[in-house]
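Proteins fold reproducibly. Look at a concrete instance:
___
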Amino acid sequence: METNAYGQGLGAPVPGWEPRPWPEPVLLHGRYVAVEPLGSARYAELFAATCGDDDADLWTYRPIPRPRSLPELWMHLAAHLDDPAMVTFALVPLEGEAAGTAAGIASYMRIEPGHGQVEVAGVLFGRALQRTRAATEAIHLLMRNAFDLGYRRFEWKCDSLNEPSRKAALRLGFVEEGRFRNHTVTQGRNRDTDWFSVTDDEWPAVCAAHEQWLDPANFDDAGRQRTALSVAR
């Protein structure tokens, strides 16, 4: 570890560091999913995919309960688009029962170009997107876009009680960093928040594991995986 004249430890130099570009709402096209800038043309599809009578559990850890009407969801999503600190995407699978229609959303948040930090947040997968290779590829594309822009840190945060989200972060190669206790109040209840990240030096290995898992050769004719991502990683 490098120290200064006072015997104090110093962080590693970051040669030639400059602020990174703000991530634009661009189309990210994969084999199994398209990650496209969110627009109102997709709101009705998202309502059908995530706001059905049996979908209340999808909203347990979100800022609001399940919207009961399209106008209610419309206002929720419109607020995302009106927030200059967010870049929100619709997730459109290219295969399966929901092919060609928006079946989920995800946003870039906590965007700090000066430090090279960005978070994927507000991830919501409808039933048709859950546990699919399209869902995995959607997060991969968002991560790849951020690191291609030169970001140094990509974050994932979730309610500490949201076990599926915790497992997803670890499966995707994120490193668990710790827990912020009494972090927020969500739907009138306390939320402890667990933090995960992938850094730019970790990304090449994580990216390679994602690409190995997403390779069509890793799936049989019925679309079942031959090797789990956690094993590949």
Summary: The beta strands are 28-29, 33-37, 87-93, 104-112, 117-125, 153-159, 175-186, 189-199. The first helix runs from residue 43 to 50.
